Amino acid sequence: MTRMAVTTVLLCLLAACGAADNGGGSSAGPGLPISIGTSRVCVTINELCTSVTICQPGTGNCQTVSDVLVDIGSVGLRLFGSVLSTPLEQALDSQGHAMGECAFFADGGSTWGPVQTADVVLGAAPAVRVPIQVISPTFGGQSVSSNPCNDTVDANPGDANFNGILGIGLFRQDCGLACAVDANNTLYFSCNGGSCAGAAVPVGNQVQNPVWLLPSGNNGVSLSLPNVPASGAPSVSGSLVLGIDTAGNTAPANVLPTDDNGFVTTVYQGRTFTQSIIDSGSNGLFFPDASLATCSAPLDGFYCPPNAVSLSATIMGVNGRQTTVPFQVANTQNLTGTNNAAFNDLGGTLSTFDWGIPFFLGRTVFVGIEGQQSSLGTGPFFAF
Amino acid sequence: MTIVGATAAFIVLLMPAMLPPLWAALGEPAGTVEHDRVMMMGQRQSRSAQGYSIESITVAGMQVKEYVSSDGVIFAVVWKGTGVPDLRLLLGTYFDEYQTALIEARRRTPRVRRPFRMKSERLVLERAGHSRSLLGRAYLPTHLPAGVRPEDIQ
To answer: Which of A285, A336, A347, B81 would give a disulfide with A329, using CB separation of 3.0 to 4.6 Å?
Structure first.
């Protein structure tokens, strides 16, 4: 309901919004500031957010939207329509009907709303024209509880704890070929009057990872965050750098190509999880370990060992490269009792292995986009 | 015709009272798999395992697997793909329990941003993955055939 510190309208020429600091070389300049615990909207523990500027296509009518989740586990920019004061261009199908999308997330969340074209400005990089999702539960005559997602979709920034999601993961588009060839893809819809029907959408018209459309620095991103004490920190701030080979980046020790679906393999206590993910949008380390005590409600599903435990797991890429990552899991109840916001030892249960925010604290993590070449190889890969 | 259009038409014709759909999968007889295939407009394959069989439906970048016990009851559903299949269809009478748990999980303040998991005496449901490859599974813990462990349902 309440939304705070949402938007600042900037009046700037696109050129001035764009590459002023870029110097025209391969260096993309300073990264975007990213942080946990500094926002009144992104109030979830270990919730990493940034700001993004969007402009009405081809104009200097721009707006900066703060409190946008930084998510390498998804692809595409999604912003709540309720925080936008800048008109964007509605995407239409060949019959002139408005295109809408359902986006699904592993936390059970889903977003519904129109696909619209915006000029998106990330930090000091030039603006890129890109289809995004405007999150709007009532678009196309739909509602929070009754919509083509067949689910209860995110209603507003206050409930979702973000004004939007900046999906800068391993892929160029959020769907790809499957949604270009089959109308029953469950993601894209064509809306006419009060009804929406499944629609095939050409790959180039799908919601895009804005990074791969940049004129330079378009092969991926890196996320750098400082570490925190075992009891957590009230906030942390770091940086999101566009481009793998950007000046100032230190070459990572481990380059782990993912499979075609973006998965790596994690081996933990003799069990092998082939559908393992590295995800800045997950707020803990999630994995199965029946020997760890779990917390009682409302923290059920998180681990609550009496004392912090030191563990390790091995992450493997499809090239056979592997590296062992030590980590700690502390008592979640004790952690949340500190009122801190950033923790490197928050863990919970899952049937596979999900390396969330604790993995990112004290590291620089590189994300290589599919088909894009860099000094670390061709994406999709993770490196750290 | 699309999934949405077909469902809407069917509800208008046969389900004016919004009753749980008769073709619901989880907990229902194996014969309902074919209903699911028709509704999803997918391709179907079968294979046998020790003490159960797996009925797979493939459509539009997604694969749905329905696990059928030897007495012909669907005791688990697994999905993966670029999209998410119609869970109202696949979970049937269990859908409302899932929705209630989902809404409760998202009402937590502050919200917990983690793969969704619910566990009750009747139903275990998990979602995971990321863009391009969304995963999920649901099973009925009291209906698992002898010798089948939860980790066998993948």
So the answer is: A347
Chain segment A67-112, per-residue pLDDT in tens: 999 999 999 999 999 999 999 999 999 999 999 999 999 888 999 9
B chain contacts of residue A176, beta-carbon cutoff 8 Å: 82, 132
CATH architecture under which domain A250-383 falls: Beta Barrel (2.40)
Domain boundaries for CATH 2.40.70 within chain A: 7-21+30-213, 250-383
Contact at CB, B62 and A186, closer than 8 angstroms: yes
Whether B71 is in a domain gets the answer yes
The reply to whether residue B130 touches residue A279, judged by beta carbons under 8 angstroms, is yes
Q: Does A183 touch chain B (CB under 8 A)?
A: yes
Domain span holding position B125: 20-146
Distance from CA of B111 to the nearest CA of A (A): 6
Tokens of B101: 């748990």
With CA atoms as reference, report the closest residue to A67 among A78, A56, A57. A78
> What does pTM read for this prediction?
0.89
Average predicted confidence (pLDDT) for chain B: 81
Query: Does residue A76 belong to the interface with chain B, where contact is any CB pair within 8 Å?
Result: yes
* B8 in a structural domain: no
Q: Which two tokens stand for residue B27?
A: 């907990």
Does residue A235 sit at the B interface (CB-CB below 8 Å)? no
- Looking at chain A, which residue has its C-alpha nearest residue B128? A106
Give the strand pairing for A128-135 and A75-80: parallel
pLDDT tens for each residue of A256-286: 999 999 999 999 999 999 999 999 999 999 9
CATH 2.60.40 fits A7-21+30-213, yes or no: no
Position B11 confidence tier, pLDDT thresholds 50, 70, 90: very low
- Min Cα–Cα distance to chain B from A54, Å: 22
∠ CA A347-A353-A358, nearest 5°, is 40
Contact between B55 and B31 under an 8 Å Cβ cutoff? The reply is no
Q: Does A352 touch chain B (CB under 8 A)?
A: yes
Least confident of A10-14, A55-59, A213-217, A361-365: A10-14
Least confident of A219-228, A362-371, B86-95: B86-95
**Mean pLDDT estimate for chain A:** 91
Q: Helix, strand, or coil here: B125?
A: strand
State the total domains in chain B.
Answer: 1
Would B27 be classed as within a structural domain?
yes
